Amino acid sequence: MEALILKDDLMAPEVVADPHTYYRKLRESERVHWNERWKGWVLTGYKEVVDVLRDPDHFSSDRMGYLENELTPQEREEIAPIFKVLKYWMVFRDPPSHTVLRMLLNKLFTPTAVERYRPMVRKIVQKALDKVVDRGKMEVVHDLAYDIPMSVVLELIGAPDLDREKIKEWSEAIGVFFFIKADEPRRREIACEGITSLVNYIEPLIVHRREHPGTDMISLLIAAEEAGQITYNDVLGTCVLLIFGGHETTMNLIANGTLALMQDSDQWTLLHKKPELIKKAVEELLRFDGSVKSTVRWAKEDVMVGDKLIKKGERLLVSLSGANRDPLQFTAPDKLDITRDPNLHVAFAHGIHVCLGASLARMEAEEAFAGMIKRISCPRLPEDAYLNYYPSVVHRALKNLPVTFHKL
Amino acid sequence: MGIKVTVNHNRCVGSRLCVGFLPDAFKLNGQGQSELITTGGVNAEEFVQTAGQCPQSAIKVEDAETGEVLFPPAELEM
Ligand code: HEM
Ligand code: SF4
To answer: Is the residue at B31 inside a domain?
Structure first.
């Protein structure tokens, strides 16, 4: 493992399979570490991670701006379709333009606002479980987790009838651009095709909403555009961001959380006996094995992080999973404890970019786990199963999770 | 009606949303978390609205005399 740290290979198969051990070793040896291979700083301590995330004055999220500077004019030309959309994603913007979009959209995503989707989610969970309980087995990702967030996100933007298979395919193509192996030779091409298809698919919807406004998110964005608060590019970019960001992360949380509860069946049993622990349990599952492992920031000027001087323009890989297992913040961090309280984890990040969809994701996960706990016994992995994660520094994503159980 | 407003620092993630919506009532402390400046000049309804925007339900609004909790409702308690 020491050798691995020295190699600085965040994509090594051992690290993808078990990031927590890698980040623990790294945290124990150097909380703010220069990764020579990635040419940036890797932060694995809670305090350092939180300090950076809560300080947008010193740390920029302008991923597209920094990337643009690194590219040759020809490379820039090649990925122009991606830039044209991703430049307007709020997650990659700094104040003040971030603030306008965030304050506008936030009201659709508050803990209270997302409650209106709960009955719908409950129905989806019940329907999915109806299909599998008698069989005594399921594949958690596709039989249960996949449908929930996709349905909610489409309902939220006011377009429940969009073609899910197509959206999934294009989202995966866009994901190739930043999440998956940088050594995929056609990654930029693939991502451009994905984004262009998604944009062509969504634009008619915006045109339609402009003529027939409703109470959905697109109508809200259009109204703000017409009032001069935001631009058309913000409207389009935001639609793409929500469709892209709103489903995979939540799907992965449901799979990771199921696995975590299976592997510590006392915790499953406890939740079964005390279903009122569901909200705390979801927080703990987010902390224990959340679906977003890291995010990136750029230093806007020379600044100290922990005991290291970060130079202007250098980038930082902010390890959310690393911070979430820091023993200085959490007692017995490697133990799943669904009664943990307080539990100020960073699974949704902290600071101004804290996940817009956090309340939605929490509600969806609550319904998925509450549904399972009630109707099936603690699942087990079939003997021939082995766990396979997508090779990504950002996402903690199981390819699939086959389980067996019996009906309660 | 007199009101009491508290920010729970075991929950606040420093989103700055409350500061954005009510800059006269909230500010950030040295840890990047929200702190109440004053309840003066802002009515209870505005506080309840802003508390509702908090992604963490970290802001509690109470009637100062009766102790009645105006926000968050019990079902949002974690
Ligand atoms: C378990 C599920 C999820 C996890 C773990 C997650 C994680 C995150 C994280 C870590 C960030 C911050 C990124 C950064 O600071 O660089 C973020 C931002 C964001 N997330 Fe999520 N997310 C989840 C679900 C969702 C859902 C369901 C939606 C939408 C329906 C969503 C929409 C967004 C948006 C729009 C932002 C940008 C917010 C901003 O810049 O102000 N996320 N998410
Ligand atoms: S809105 Fe909530 S999380 Fe954000 S700064 Fe205010 S109290 Fe903290």
So the answer is: yes
What is the number of domains present in chain B? 1
What residues make up the domain containing B41?
A: 3-72
Cα of A333 to ligand 1 centre, how many Å?
23
| Domain presence at residue B78 | no
Ligand 2 cavity residues, CB under 6 Å: B 7, 12-18, 33-34, 54-56, 58-59
pLDDT score for A181: 52
ipTM: 0.97
Per-residue confidence (pLDDT) for residue A182, from 0 to 100: 56
> Nearest Cβ partner of B20 from A54, A99, A283?
A99
CATH number at residue B32: 3.30.70.20
- Name the residue among A22, A223, A31, A249 with its Cα closest to residue A141: A249
Q: For residue B20, what pLDDT is reported?
A: 98
Whole-number Å distance between alpha carbons of A99 and A95: 6
From CA A210, how far away is CA A214, in angstroms rounded? Answer: 9
A2-404 folds as Cytochrome p450 (1.10.630)
Does residue B21 lie within any of the structural domains?
Answer: yes
Torsion angle of the four alpha carbons A159, A161, A162, A165, in this order, in degrees rounded to the nearest 10: 140
* Count of positions (residues) in chain B: 78
* Position B77 in a domain: no
CB B32 to CB A111 under 8 A?
no
Chain B residues close to A103, C-beta within 8 Å: 17, 20-21
Question: Mind listing the pLDDT tens digit for each residue in A226-272?
Answer: 999 999 999 999 999 998 888 899 999 999 999 999 999 999 999 99
Q: Which of A50, A49, A56, A66 is nearest to A94 (CA)?
A: A56
Q: How would residue A71 be classed by pLDDT, with cut points 50, 70 and 90?
A: confident
Average pLDDT, chain A: 94
Ligand nearest to the CA of B53: 2
For residue A7, the model assigns a pLDDT of 80
Q: Of all helices (H) and strands (E), which one includes residue A403? A: strand A402-404
